[in-house]
Amino acid sequence: MPASVARPRPRPGPSPASPLPLLLLLLEVLSGPVCGRVPPSVPRISLPISEADSYLTRFTIPQTYNYSVLLVDPASHMLYVGARDTIFALSLPFSGERPRRIDWMVPEAHRQNCRKKGKKEGDLGGRKTLQQRWTTFLKADLLCPGPEHGRASSVLQDMVILRPEHGMGTPIFYGIFSSQWEGAAISAVCSFRPQDIRTVLNGPFRELKHDCNRGLPVMDNDVPQPRPGECITNNMKLQQFGSSLFLPDRVLTFIRDHPLMDKPVFPADGHPLLVTTDTTYLRVVAHRVPSLSGKEYDVLYLGTEDGHLHRAVQIGAQLSVLEDLALFPEPQPVENMKLYQSWLLVGSHTEVTQVNTTNCGRLQSCSECILARDPVCAWSVRLAACVAHTGEHEGLVQDIESADVSSLCPKEPGEHPVVFEVPVAAAAHVVLPCSPSSAWASCVWHQPSGVTALTPRRDGLEVVISPGAMGAYACECQEGGAARVVAAYSLVWGSQRGAPSWAHIVGAGLAGFFLGVFAASLTLLLIGRRQQRQRQRELLARDKVGLDLGVLPSGTTSYSQDPPSPSPEDERLPLALAKRGSGFGGFPPPFLLDPCPSPPHIRLTGAPLATCDETSI
Fold first, then answer.
1. Buried-state track 521-559, b at ≥16 Cβ within 10 A, e below 16
2. Are 284 and 160 contacting, i.e. CB atoms less than 8 angstroms apart?
3. Of 8, 357, 431, 455, which has the fewest beta carbons less than 10 angstroms from its beta carbon?
């Protein structure tokens, strides 16, 4: 097994030459291949949460988290869910019923029993060396090379053993790996055969202790007998080695100092089944599914770091990702997965999600059913529907290897997409989007014969506008021998789409001129009114401190700054004077005299504005 196990860790467009293509470039949210074949690491179909939620069943309890332990009991058809501080029991398949909460106080005897689980009979450790430790522990590197990227993926994330049914055939190990190189986000899937692992464990040991020979294989003459790391067999019992307690100390010392084998374990066929650089896989489960022809295919379900589920089928020597399913409304890692009959159970931080693995009804047409390459699903000619076959062959068609739609499906009525008329300007750069439903489709463009400046892109076709570029464009995509037009456009000059006349231009100019004159007049009027109010406030402020606007009395200082904003009391005076009909339009006269027969006094800021006038407010 590997020495280390760890958990992993606006496309710019061309500058538009005019505002018209700028509007068109906003359509670049569509993405899809425009030519050639896409590697099988790219999911053929991607379903967002809005489309996938219709055939997902969720289980969650408020204020309960970490649904990371899933245990299936096939005999009682029960699922035991281990969350934080709580265990739930659910009947399978669950459909929203109330769960049964289990309170389990674990005795210390059970704890000790669990710690002893897995110890082989006879492996009791040594008397002096490796006391109460494993003596049959051997390590070998599992390598999942990535020849496309030049780096090996050596950090094991998860592994599943796919055992054949009825004891026929050889089991296979499927493991997902990540790269140990910092900054290299590589995930790979490799398969390993038990005989290859056994050959490496029976091979030479690697020297780790001595400086002179470190990293070199240990010579066969230096390996003691009985061979270190082996289980106690009947032959060893005949040699008076009834358990590991009777092994010679040199054997135990050797296995303590040489736990690593010299050669790594390479995957079956010497190459990975799947390598991806934009997806981080964390969990994997697998099962073997018979097709309509009787041939069995290995189907893998890969859980990602952001809460997606990839369904992949091994076809030949490659693992092809056929479906990408968003499991949760918010991205979160997939922590655990279990298969039960035709259901996949996925545990995460916030919920347990149940996925139907035989949901063939989502495939609406014969071409979709054949191109899905699901070994469970076949097209029924009699029912005109995609159904889950049970070994029956009458009226069913399926093709996992080549998905030849043209020969298996009747000719379906072609869809005529809407032709979008695109106004353009000379020398502009325009991107015409093309987004087929399948990422594996091979797409070609049909364009006018006079166009010369074309640049195929991943998300469409970039056209440099010239007189010869005007006309019709069509994006035709083909998969499995069936072709259809996905997108159609018609490029026209911008003047042909509602070009303004000279009368409209002159009218717009005159309207703009009069609008400008009106705005200027209104601005001048507002400025004049503001200056008039400012002068009136200055008069009021100077009168309050007893100043003559014409002559500065001795002992006073000129007021060169704007007066402070009037207080609520300052606003009483204009109202009182207006009621007596004095002043100028309700504002105070240049000289403010006290109308009361009290002795004359100078009013200071903050003094009452009216001392005996009943009209003051």
1. eeeeeeeeeeeeeeeebebbbbbbeebeeeeeeeeeeee
2. yes
3. 455
pLDDT above 70 for 3: no
Instruction: Give percent above pLDDT 90 in the chain.
Output: 41
- Which CATH number is 119-270's, of 3.30.420.270, 2.60.120.460, 3.20.20.140, 2.130.10.10? 2.130.10.10
The pair of three-digit structure tokens given for residue 563, joined into one six-digit string: 């007066």
The candidate with the shortest Cα–Cα distance to 356, out of 61, 41, 67, 93, is 93
> Going by CATH, does the domain composed of 19-29+414-496 fall within 2.60.40.10?
yes
Residue 239 has pLDDT above 90, yes or no: no
> Where does 475-604 have alpha helices with state H?
502-544, 572-579
Contact by Cβ (8 Å): 287, 162: yes
Write the CB contacts of 485 (distance below 8 Å, at least 6 apart in sequence): 414, 415, 416, 417, 474, 475, 476
Sequence-separated (6 or more) residues with CB below 8 Å from residue 463? 429, 430, 431, 432, 447, 451, 453, 454, 469, 473, 491
- Among 199-213, 295-309, 439-453, 590-604, the least confident range: 590-604
Task: Give the model confidence (pLDDT) of 483-525 as tens digits.
Answer: 889 899 999 998 544 444 445 555 666 677 777 777 788 888 8
How many residues are given for the chain? 617
Domain ranges of the chain: 19-29+414-496, 119-270, 358-412, 504-549+561-617
Residue 242 CB-half CA count within 13 A: 0
Both tokens of 41, joined, read: 């690491």
CA distance 592 to 210: 110
Check if the beta carbon of residue 371 is closer than 8 Å to that of residue 45: no
| Whether pTM exceeds 0.90 | no
Residue 152 in this model has a pLDDT that exceeds 90: no
pLDDT mean over 39-60: 89
Relative to beta strand 172-178, strand 151-153 is unpaired
Instruction: Identify any residues that bridge with 177 across adjacent strands, giving them in sequence order.
Output: 156, 188
Give the burial class of 150: count Cβ atoms within 10 A of its Cβ; 0-12 exposed, 13-18 middle, 19 or more buried: exposed
145/267 Cα distance (integer angstroms): 8
Nearest CA among 16, 31, 15 for reference residue 457? 31
For 94, the 3-state DSSP assignment is coil
SS (H, E, C) 176-208: EEECCCCCCCCEEEEEECHHHHHHHHCCCEECC
Q: How confident is the model at residue 542 (pLDDT cuts 50, 70, 90)?
A: low
CATH architecture assignment, domain 358-412: 2-Layer Sandwich (3.30)
HEC letters along 141-179: CECEEECCCCEEECEEEEEEEECCHHHCCCCEEEEEEEC
* Whether pLDDT at 33 is above 60: no
Q: Cα–Cα distance between 392 and 292 in angstroms, integer?
A: 8
